[in-house]
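Example with several molecule types.
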Amino acid sequence: MSATPPNPQRRSERSRQAILAAAIELCTEKGYVGVTVEAIAARAGVSKKTIYRWWPSKGFVLLEALAQRTDSHAPFPDTGHLAADLYAQMTGVVRLLTTPPFGPAYIGILSELHHDPELTAAVHEQFITPRFTAAVNRLKSAQRQGRLSADADLELAVELLYGPLYYRYALRKPAHTAERMAELVDHVLRTLDCRP
Amino acid sequence: MSATPPNPQRRSERSRQAILAAAIELCTEKGYVGVTVEAIAARAGVSKKTIYRWWPSKGFVLLEALAQRTDSHAPFPDTGHLAADLYAQMTGVVRLLTTPPFGPAYIGILSELHHDPELTAAVHEQFITPRFTAAVNRLKSAQRQGRLSADADLELAVELLYGPLYYRYALRKPAHTAERMAELVDHVLRTLDCRP
Amino acid sequence: MSATPPNPQRRSERSRQAILAAAIELCTEKGYVGVTVEAIAARAGVSKKTIYRWWPSKGFVLLEALAQRTDSHAPFPDTGHLAADLYAQMTGVVRLLTTPPFGPAYIGILSELHHDPELTAAVHEQFITPRFTAAVNRLKSAQRQGRLSADADLELAVELLYGPLYYRYALRKPAHTAERMAELVDHVLRTLDCRP
Amino acid sequence: MSATPPNPQRRSERSRQAILAAAIELCTEKGYVGVTVEAIAARAGVSKKTIYRWWPSKGFVLLEALAQRTDSHAPFPDTGHLAADLYAQMTGVVRLLTTPPFGPAYIGILSELHHDPELTAAVHEQFITPRFTAAVNRLKSAQRQGRLSADADLELAVELLYGPLYYRYALRKPAHTAERMAELVDHVLRTLDCRP
DNA sequence: TCGTAATCGAGACGGTACGTCGAGTCTTAGG
DNA sequence: CCTAAGACTCGACGTACCGTCTCGATTACGA
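Resulting structure tokens for the full complex:
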């Protein structure tokens, strides 16, 4: 009578991979709105039930596909040159938001957040919080080395860095150019830097 | 044989108002996903065709409803105290994003931008560009008065101010508290201020 | 909020005919189990919604198709020769049960009766009761003419005539041959006949 | 490579009984349509595979359950009073068709016959033919005793007796009352009786 | 007595059809 | 011509069972 949760041990890895691949492909070809559970099932040669058994909605499928294909993601760079590191990292974020096949997928997922709290939680846990923390940590390490003023508000700094990126994303303004992003990094760092 | 465009002169103002009201009500009661053309038509006592004749999609309906109900919006404040003016303005933006009934509507519209370029254009024209320009102008006026360094990058400044707001919105992090927003304004202004 | 019933005046006769035709065709080609709402919709070039709007289930669709295609059905024959008339009529029933395309449809409908009281009511009203009554009336008319004993139980007689037919149908025994059916009629009539 | 047939010696009697019991229970509680292989398996604490290994379909499961629970069924009664014997037997048939838990099960099985020839064969072998033959034999024995005319068509007689019962069953008319059934028996016997 | 091979429970799998919902188009009648 | 009403096609939703198919774990048989 109770809906017993599925047993992950019995899960077919084959189907899982086919589903993730199909989801990404569809998103590439037809955009996020073209990704439907039905289409994923058809392309992956899989039953809809199998999808619903393991994921609550297509957003989660794409999220997992995205995570799998980007989890070899380099940790926050730490070359010693803070500005360059931040720049590199932020460039990565913009690239993720703007280049196929991950751009459309990530954007679609983000737009789903506004009516799906559970997906929001998952995205935060897997994507956003780690990156935010990594950025803060990178700044902290610079601060420990005395390259940033001791009382700098590092979380605010990170928001100032990422903020304009997402501002443009959210309103669908064109993304920052490389130079513009460099200026942004410089500008924010200048605020924090105790020593030039 | 050609689809003659509708004649705005013969348009029923009664229906128009009923539709806009129904859209806002539905958005308040059931959230953006609960707003469907079907539901609007039913509640407004209006034919679906009438809606489709005058608006391309539900996003435009809500946009118009929103515009109508907020176009008494005050222009960018200019009390002489720059920080206070910016703070007031940004508070308004956050309030728009977070308080019913306009919050859900505006958020829903924004999430639609990612798959509707025409809606994007309309939103930019009616909402975003005017406010962005107003903010830049307010800074320009301060600059002219010599209160900001002459070579300050004002557009970047506005992005730094609004950015964190939309960063949190886009990722559904909780909005900034009043204090936090004040700190944000202060921090950014400090970067630009030639004179303390 | 209330589910308003559809307006029959607005109904598309075109769709209705296409649906009935498709149902009969499918039943002919693939048997009753091959008739699905989905298949009917596909073949008729019609939306599933349209089917569900006008019929509660596929049984009703087939019933209507059947009724439409047999309602030119001759009334109970009355040639003056009672045995021949009964024989003719019963032959018709057997033919209805055994020859495509109506046989499979009728049989399928009948098998549905066992879990659908509303379909049962409809079938009784449209098919069974009229025929039963007609048969009783034919016997009554013979009785009035003094050809059947005045106290004969005519309803029982009709059950004795139709009974064996449905006995074989229900248990899927092969239907009666023509001779066998003639013997059946003779046998029953002999019981009732006051005058040889 | 070939599918080796299961070995009945190693069959789990425990599972078999649980399955049959579950099938009957489900049929009692939710009617024939509520009996699904899935539900049987769940209730019996048994794997679906186990069911499919031993039975071709749910119809066969119910048939076996029915047979097991009614095979203590008395043989055709032979008290010397023919009418009473026939009446008793036919009452039994009606009771089987109308009283839970066997009524719904039997009716469900019968309705399955129309699209399952193998089930038809099984039902005939286990249920129908034996009873039909028994009835004919009972009449033959009466005939041998000179109580029925020597040239009476006994098979037709049995069809006349059972026919009306199944006529009402097939069309879901209410079953005969006890008196009506008595009249039916008398009427048919009168046709056959050489001696009053 | 002990492998060993089949059956067992559990339940995931690819399918098919279900009945519902909303989108956007089209038709009809009335003003 | 606009409107209300709403029927239409289309496509996707999420669910229910089907019958097939692995899995280990259990169990009874024959070596």
